[in-house]
Amino acid sequence: MAEALPKLTGKEAKYLRGLGHPLKPILRVGKSGVTGALVKQTASALETHELIKMKLLQSCPDTIKEVAASMTERVPCQLAQSIGKTLLLYKKRDENPKIVLPEKKLD
User: What CATH topology corresponds to 25-90?
Assistant: First the structure.
C-alpha cells in the first residue's frame, strides 16, 4: 500500500480550487464504488493532468468522504476540495510538473 501524501495547506487548496473551478469531471464513480480499475484510471489521469475532478453518481454506494479517503490512500493523491458529489484531486507529476503550488511561509 502506498504512503499517503501530506495534507494540503489552506493556501495550496485555495489555489488548486481556483484552477479546478472550470474543469469538468473526467471520472465517475458508479454502482461498483471504488474498484481497482477506477484507482488505476485515477492514477493515470492524475499523471497526465495533475488536477482532476471526479463525480459520484446517484448509484454509488459510498459516501463522498469514503471515496475521498479511499482515493487519497490508494492512488496516493491529495484532496483539494470535496463539494456536493464532486471531488477535486491533485497529485504533483514526477517529471515536468505543470502546476506550481504557492510557497509555504517559514516561521
Answer: Translation Initiation Factor IF3 (3.30.110)
